[in-house]
Amino acid sequence: MDRYMSGPQLARLLSIDPAARPYYRVLARTVRSLVLDGRLPVRVRVPAERNLAEALGVSRTTVTSAYDLLREQGYLESRQGAGSWTALPDAGSLGTDNPWLAAGDDGLLPMHAAAPSAISTLPGAISAATGRYPRYTLGMGYDPVGIAPLRQAIAARYTARGVATRPEQILVTTGAQQAIHLVAMMLLSRGDPMLVESPTYPHALDLARMRGARIVPVGVPDEGWGELDLLTSAIRQSAARLAYVIPDFQNPTGHLMDDAARAALAATARRYGTTLVVDESWCELAIDEGAAATPLAAFDTDGRVITIGSASKLWWGGLRIGWIRTTAATVRRLAVLRASVDVASPLFEQLVVAELFEDIEGARTERARLLGASRAVLAAELAARMPDWSFLTPRGGGSLWIRLPGPSSVALADAAACQGVRLAPGQWFGMDGTLEGRLRLPFTQPPQVLAEAVRRIAEARLRGAYGTRPAAPLTPAL
What we know:
By secondary structure, this protein is of the alpha/beta class. It is built from 15 helices and 14 strands.
């Protein structure tokens, strides 16, 4: 390595506001932005901590903290005796300083997570569950497949949606992510091809990497799933053992797959021996009239569709209750497999969700009203402040999938953090650094929070990845 940047050279390139706080984080963000946009090339040796500290007029401890953060994120590599040099992180790694691991009390508006606050009926359901709880203390306290009242409620909901289901076909899990994890443990071995949409839910990609699967991404068209040529060809050519799809208000695009496409997808999976793992976490979040489709499992004729559901989006993420709908035989296999994970989901939360199912239509109506109002405000604020951003307004779900006109979404996320807003850039939802020009913006926060967030993002576009964090951040209302 023969390229080297001196302390004064890097300091001139950084141009950081001396009043920026916390300075070490601003320094790390700025270096990261320089690397991402190519102004600071990869494999360039950066100045020693003492030299850069002198050039910036800050303490060596400040620069040391910034370098440590950059190493954790993968933007610096170091070797004793050789110094440190710029790098790019593994495209499949989110790093240790990413929004999913961020503290909830760090003062940043949480525009990285599409997670609505609790439904208004939750306190009543908690009260009712509290009254029922003592009777369960006479037993062991856990059931590997889930308590009977909840499994009955989930099965009844599937039946009402047009897919005849028995309680024996339901396995209650600790959130949808555990459900995906259990299915992957059962079906995937190292090196097996796993088909995913691009963009898709980031934690599904994490799981595929953890299992050592060969990920086969298939692009989701901007206008949504119409013709399934890309998806069908990918299934055929890859011989994918498992395909993870989100047909209902796809995360992050918000697209809704129509019934004809669902039938064709089920037929393709059946023809080529692929198991479809269908994530329905958002399926109850229709906003517009008529924004609904038949469950993909209704087109299944041989048990090849495994459906995953969740209480998180409709009711509240803090409940951490999900479920799997599949054949009764597969439920038994999964129940044995989960013994190595957590044996059973928490009893009290299961009782709460069973109570919430009693008024699921009321919850759907409330969510549609609240999300509709927030969606309208977010779209209007973006049109007013960022008219060069483009997006399609989804008929349900919880987010807008934005196409940016210029800088990368990572650079924008760095700048927005300096203005008190936490974002999830497009690369999080794709493979190998793709989707750099995209950004997911959720509308699951109240309208006043969204308006303030857009104002700060607009300011971030002007100021870049430096500056001071607002002293009194707006706290989202529950």
